C-alpha cells in the first residue's frame, strides 16, 4: 500500500489539490541533526521553473510535525507536512467523464468506485514525489558517507545536455511532451547490504523506483546491454581485499548484495501523459468517443524534474537496507 | 528477507548442495485442486537438458508436505519440498579462497562472516528458482482466468529463434556464456490490481523479478523506448467501457494499477558468470591475483531456462495483488 | 515500530508537547461517509474533565489532511492531524536527570541516546491515544454492523460504579493514583475473522491493546478463571447453524478465529505512574538517590479515560482482520 | 497469517495427521553452532508421557533441511522439518458433522469452506507447537546471555506442585480436563528492546503467546493485580545506573521497552476442549443436537506441556526485538 521499508519505513499520504501531502518516516535513528531548511536544497531541485515544467508554483515549505527535538531526530516517527496553496481545481471537472489517455483517471475511478479525488490526479499525482524527496533527504542523512548523484542522459532521444532545452521547446510548440532517461549513482555504499532472494538490493531499489509515476523501466550496471554480452566480457574480477572490481558491469550489486563498488542504475521515464494537443478518449457517460482537451497545468517533460526524485527513491531503499543489514 | 507478499506470501528456503530446497506459501485460498503432478509441466520447462544448460540432472520431484488434503488446498500454509540428489560438492572447494567474478561468493562470505554454504552457490544458487517455479504453479491456479506466457526474444544478441542454438554453441566452444532477453505476458488480468504508490503493480512485479538471479533490467510496455517517444505517440486512448486501449504502450498498468489490457514486460538476463575459460580473481588468503578455473556444472546461457521462472515471478506478484485488491 | 495492520494499516506519530500528533490510515475502503465532526463523539469520551483526570485542556480538533473528498473516503491514505495547544513544558526539565519511577523517561533516554523528547512523555505520552481514538472511529465505520462497547468494571478494586468517584477522590487526597479494569465487547462480528496461528484474533487484538500505555494484562472470555475450570464446565457447545453457543466462555474466538458470538475481553490498567506524592529516584548526573516531586498535569486514574481507547484498539484490530478475511 | 517477526521471522506450517510440520526461520545470524541434537532437550520437555498427557507417541526427530553448514547457521533461512508417524485418523471422521465444543472444527470448516484438514485438528492442532519449540531453541541461541525459564503455578486451581498429579488424575477419572497457570521469566535481557507504540515488548510477546492454542489470558509483572494497586505502591523506583529497580512490578517492561530487569509474565491456559465425557453438539447435517463422544488421543491438561512452548514464544518474540533494536 502506501508504506515501504522494513526498518526505515516511509508512509506517504496526500493529494495534489487537497489540503496537502506528506510523509511519516519510522525507524529514523535518533540524534541526526535536521531542520526544515536542510530539506530545501533537494526540494528546490525538484521544483518547477525551467521551460517545459508546470507553471503551477508552490512554496513547498515543509513543516516537521513530529520526531524532532532540539534540532535533532528523536527516534520517534518523523512527520513532514506540505500544504497545497496554488490549486485551480476547476480545470479537472471534465476528467470524470473523459479519462485522460495513459493517466490514472480511469483505473482510479474503477478501483475506488468513483470516490477517488480526481482533481489534479489526486493521490496519483506526481506532486506526491515532493514527499518522497523530503524523505530522501532524511534517508541521505541516515546514509552518512554515501554520495548519491544523478544526471539526465537523454531527453526525447537527445543525448547532448546542451540540446535538451531545444527538444523540450519543440515538444511544447507542438503541444506535445517528451520522455527521458536518468542515471543514478550511489558511491560509498558498504559491502553486504541486501538480503538473499526477495529483498535483494536491486529488488528493493526497483520497488521504490517503480513507485515513482511515469517510470517504465530500470536497469542496473550494463542492464539491457548485458543480454548481448558474453560472460568473459561481462564478468567483473575482484581486484583487492575491499572487493573493488576493475569494471563495474554489475552496477555495484552481486547476488543481490552490495559489493562496495558504486551502485549505478538507469531509469526510463515516459513522456508526460497530459499533453495540450487534442486527443480522443472514451466518454464514460455516453459510451462514445469524444475529443479531449486537457486543461490544467502540466510538465511537458517530467524527466527534467525526476533526478532528485530518483535519488530519493534510491536513498530510501538503501537506508532501509543499511539498517536491516545491522540485524545480521 | 526470504518472504514476499502481503496476502499471498511466499517464503523460500534451501541450498544447491544441501539437503534440498522448497517453499512455504501462505494465504492460498482453500479448495483449489492440486497434486504434485500438476507441478511437473512447469518444472519440466525449467529443467536443463538443452545444449548450453547444465549437465547436472535432478529428478526435481516435489513433495507436498502441508496444506493439501483430499487433493485440494486447505487454506493452511502449503509447503513444497525438493531434495537434492545429484551433488558433486568437491568442485567448489577452491571458491572460498578464490571468489568467482560476478558471483555471490565474495559478498556472501563478507555478509555472513564466512559461514555461508559456498557449495554450488549455496542459498544464492539459481537452483532456488525451482522453488519459485513450484510456487508459480500455485499462483497461476489462484489467478484462474489469467493466461501467463513467455518467450525468448534474444540470445546473445540474436533475435531469430532458429539461431539461438548456434549462438549458444559458439559460446560453449569458446568456453564462454551468453545473455538473453525474455518477454512475459499476462492476459485476462482484471482492472484494479495494484495499490497506489509503493505497491504499484510494476513495483511488485519488478521486486519479484529482481529476486531471480542474473536479472539486470526490466521494462514494462514500451519500456526504455518510451524515453524517446512523444506523449501524442505514447498515450493509449481508452476505446470502450471495459478499458481496452487500441495500443498498449503502457503494458497493462497505468498509475500503478492494472487497466485490463495484457501486462507485458521484458527482462534482461546477464550471461552466466560461471564460464569455463580461465579468469583472474583475487586470492583472499594471499592477497594476490590468481588464475581461476571454474569447475562444477553450469549453464552457458541461463536465459534459456528463465522464461518459466519469470512467469512464476509474475504469477506470484499478481496473485498477491489479486488477493490484496479484494480488501478494497 | 509505529505501524499496525496488514490491510487496514495504522501509523501513529507525534508527541505530547511538540507540534501535534496524528495518524495515517492506509487501506480504508473508498466511499465511507466521514467528516471531522464524526470523530468528536469518541474524542469527547476520551477527553479529560472528570475529577481525577488531568487539568490540561485541549480542543482536540481533528484536521483531516488527506484521503477525504466530497465528504467520503477516497481509498487513498486517510491522515488525521491534531495540534497541541495547551503545553507547559517547563514542568518537565528535571526529568532528564531524575527519571520518574515506572515511566518511560529512563528507557527512552537509553534507547534513543538522550535524544528523545522528554516533555510530557514525548512520543510515549498517553496523549498519543487521541490518534488511536480517531483511527478507531474510522475502523468502526469499516466494521459496519459491529457494535463495540466498553465499561469500567473496577476502579482501585471497587466494583460499584457509584463508588468510583470516591475511590479516585481518596487517591487524589493522598497525592496518589489508582488502577482499574475495563471490559470491551464487540457484537455482530462475522464468523471467520482471524488467521491460523500467528494472526489469531486474540493475538492481533492483544498486540493492539498492549500498545496502549498502562495496560498490564488482557484476558478473553473466561480468561484467567479458565485456568481453574474443567473442560466440561468451560466448553461452549454449538447450538445452531449460525454457530451460536449457549455460553460464551471463549469470548467469541475459537482456534484464533471468530465464531460469531460476541467478542469479550478485559484489560487491567495500572495506576498512573505520575503521582503527586514525593518519591525516590536515581539521579543520573550524581549517581545518588534523590527525592522527586513530579510537576506537570496528570490523571490520577487513567482507567477512567481508557474505555474508548480500548474500543478503538479493538476496532482497529478487527477492521484489519475483516479486510484480511476477504482475501481467503 | 503464519509468519511472525520483522527481522527474526518464523513461518510455521504443517498438520497433525498429514505428512508433517515444521518451521522456516529467516534472519538467523550466521555462525551460531547448531545441531539437531541441540533441539532435543526442549523437544523432550514438550513431549507427552506424564499421566494426563496424550498417549500418542511421536519420535519428534527434527530434520534440519536448510540454513546449516559445517554445524553452524549460515545466515540463510533455517528450515526444520518433523514427520508425523503415529497417526490414527479414523478417529476424526465424525467431526465433520459433529464439531467439538470449544474446538476449531466448526470455525475452520466455515472459514475454509469445508476444505480444511480436520484430522486431529489439522493445522489448528496443538501439535504445531512442536515447530514453535524448535524455533524457540534457535531463538534462545540468538538470545545469548538471556536465561528463559518457566514454571507451572497452578493446575486446576491447585497451587501446590505436589498436588498437580492428583488434580489431573481426578479429572481423568471423571473423563474431564483441567486448565492451568504458567509463569515465564527472561533474565539478562538488555535495556532498550521494544519499539514505541505498536511493537512494544508486551505487544510482541502477547501476540506470540496468543498464537499458542488454549491461551486465554496474559499479564505482565503485577498484571491484573495492578488494577487494584495505588501508584505509590506499584511504582518501581530506579535504584542504580543500570536501571535496576528494587521491586519489579512492571515485569521488566516500561513504556513498551525493556528496562533491564527480569521480564515476567503469566499465562492462563484453558482446560483441554477434547474431553472423554459425552457432550452435546450441533449436527451440521441434520440441524439437530446430538450427543458427541470424542475419540482420538488427547491431553487432559495441556498446561502440563505448555511451559516450554511459552518459553519458545517468549524467546522468538525477544529474538526479534533484539535484532530490531540493532537498527536504532
Give a verbal description of the structure.
Four copies of one chain form a homotetramer. With 328 residues, chain A is of the alpha+beta class. The first copy, chain A, has one domain (3-325): Chorismate synthase, AroC fold, CATH 3.60.150.10. Chain A is 22% helix and 22% strand. Chain A has seven helices and 15 strands. The first copy, chain A, has helices at 40-46, 105-111, 129-142, 164-173, 201-209, 231-234, 306-325, and strands at 3-4, 9-14, 20-26, 63-66, 68-69, 72-73, 78-83, 147-155, 180-187, 215-220, 253-254, 257-258, 263-269, 279-282, 289-292. In chain A, the strands form five sheets. Chain A has a five-stranded antiparallel β-sheet with strand order 1-2-3-7-4, with helices on one face. A four-stranded antiparallel β-sheet of chain A has the order 8-9-13-10. Chain A has a two-stranded antiparallel ribbon with strand order 5-6. In chain A, helix 3 (129-142) crosses helix 7. The model of chain A has no long low-confidence stretch (mean pLDDT 95). Chains A and B meet through strand 1, helix 2, helix 5, strand 10 and helix 6 of A and strand 1, helix 2, helix 5, strand 10 and helix 6 of B.
Amino acid at each position: 500500500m502506501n508504506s515501504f521499508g522494513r526498518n526505515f519505513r516511509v508512509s506517504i499520504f496526500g493529494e495534489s489539490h487537497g489540503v496537502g501531502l506528506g510523509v511519516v518516516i519510522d525507524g529514523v535513528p535518533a540524534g541526526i541533526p535536521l531542520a526544515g531548511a536542510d530539506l530545501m536544497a533537494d526540494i528546490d531541485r525538484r521544483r518547477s521553473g525551467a521551460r517545459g515544467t508546470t507553471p503551477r508554483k508552490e512554496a513547498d515549505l515543509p513543516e516537521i510535525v513530529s520526531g524532532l527535538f532540539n534540532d535533532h531526530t528523536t527516534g520517534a516517527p518523523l512527520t513532514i507536512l506540505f500544504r497545497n496553496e496554488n490549486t485551480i481545481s476547476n480545470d479537472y471537472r471534465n476528467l470524470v467523464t473523459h479519462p485522460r489517455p495513459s493517466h490514472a483517471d480511469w483505473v482510479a475511478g474503477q478501483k475506488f468506485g468513483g470516490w477517488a479525488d480526481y482533481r489534479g490526479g489526486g493521490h496519483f499525482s506526481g506532486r506526491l514525489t515532493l514527499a518522497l524527496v523530503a524523505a530522501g533527504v532524511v534517508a541521505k542523512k541516515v546514509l552518512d558517507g554515501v554520495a548519491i548523484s544523478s544526471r539526465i542522459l537523454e531527453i526525447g532521444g537527445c543525448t547532448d545536455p546542451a540540446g535538451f532545452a531545444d527538444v523540450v521547446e519543440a515538444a511544447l510548440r507542438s503541444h506535445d511532451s517528451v520522455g527521458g532517461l536518468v542515471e543514478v549513482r550511489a558511491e560509498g555504499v558498504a559491502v553486504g547490504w541486501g538480503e538473499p532472494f526477495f529483498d535483494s538490493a536491486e529488488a528493493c531499489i526497483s520497488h521504490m523506483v517503480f513507485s515513482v509515476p511515469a517510470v517504465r523501466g530500470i536497469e542496473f550496471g550494463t542492464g539491457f546491454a548485458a543480454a548481448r554480452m558474453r560472460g568473459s566480457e561481462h564478468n567483473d574480477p575482484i581486484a583487492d581485499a575491499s572487493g573493488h572490481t576493475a569494471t563495474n558491469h554489475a552496477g555495484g550489486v552481486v547476488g543481490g548484495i552490495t559489493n562496495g563498488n558504486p551502485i549505478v542504475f538507469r531509469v526510463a521515464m515516459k513522456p508526460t501523459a497530459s499533453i495540450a494537443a487534442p486527443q480522443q478518449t472514451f466518454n464514460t457517460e455516453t459510451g462514445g468517443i469524444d475529443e479531449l482537451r486537457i486543461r490544467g497545468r502540466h510538465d511537458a517533460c517530467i524527466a527534467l524534474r525526476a533526478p532528485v526524485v530518483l535519488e530519493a527513491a534510491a536513498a530510501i531503499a538503501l537506508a532501509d537496507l543499511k539498517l536491516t543489514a545491522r540485524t545480521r
